[in-house]
Write the structure tokens for this entry.
Amino acid sequence: MSLTEGMSNIASYVEFSNQYKVVQRSFRKLTQAFRKFWRLMLTDNVSPEGIAKSLKDVDGLQRRTEALFKQLLKKWPRSVKLLRAYGTFVEEVKQDALTAQRFFKEADSIEDETAEARRRGLTGDGGAQSSDALAHIDDKKDAMIIADETGIMQTVNGVASKMFGYKKEDMIGKNLNILMPEPYSTQHSSFLREYLRTGRSSVLGNVRAFEALHSKGHIFPVTLNANRIDSSHGIQFVGVLRPSEDLDAVISCDREGMITSVNKTCLKMFGYKNVDAIVGKNVKVLMPTKDARDHDAHMQRYLSSGVAHVVGTIGRRLKGRRSDGKVFNISLGLTESGSGASISFTARIRNVQDESGMVTINSTGKVSQFHSSYLKRYLRTGIPKVISNSRVVPVASKAGTIVYVHLDVAQVG
């Protein structure tokens, strides 16, 4: 399923999750009522009235729980999760092992059938079974999180739990901002309140690329499709996430230059074994001695004057320093977010090979289709948007493979 496919059925998944939690709560109450009854039976001088009341409580909860199960099974008859839960109810409460086995076998059969269909590439999430597929989305490759209007996570599937490195119970009841690096973690609640006040959002309904925060402290890239659902439980937000490949090292730091988060590419690029070895240190530990010596003064000058020489640039050619002291060429893009005391910076860094290629282009761009419109504009206006600027750009090889290169363009003659 692509992140945009099947989103019309997300409401069905949310409603399933909400109703499934209701039946789970009813089942737990029934189990507690059974335990209370048996404890009562083991006490001395138990009254007939006490036994009658306890049995009435058990009978009422059993009827309610079974009705809830049947209501859900009518709507989601092929939900593996639901079939197994009802089988457990039948086996433990109704003491009907034979019927319970029938539900367990049906769940196993559907699971095997689905796995085989996916292996052969025959089915997706569309068609008549789309709501059923959403009902057991734990088996999918997409991570899914449902949160309430305050950002508190209510439902988390197994893929999301694994993606972020948490147990489900350690995510449910917590705010979504634990899954975000700074500055997004601090800003998220205010963004949510602003959306609820104005109804405007640049995130909801769109597939966006974001940086996510793992429980172990490193950041990693994801694509997110977030949507609002107005369910029987009020306003809820559903996020479908997939990990995406990131060739860049990503580093976030505060206004003092202290590193607040990094991704795995950063650890590998700069030769650090784990997040704790770098987070909390000044970003200048990643710079050669001369640059590190001047860094604090440059940052203070920018914060006091607002005149940017590096902030806002993309593809700036610099040097980086590994943990073993080795210096290497990098290309840096640096962005700023927040204001005042909450200013933070995010750097995207790419390792640039020492070798440089050279391409000669005439005034019409004849040699290659290198942005001929840019060249024509430069010749007409004299404004060098590309020429004399250093940047990282994607290029296509003869075979059509896309690779990233560091590009310097200069005018000769």
The chain has eleven helices and twelve strands. The radius of gyration is 29 Å. Residues 62 and 94 are 9 Å apart (CA to CA).
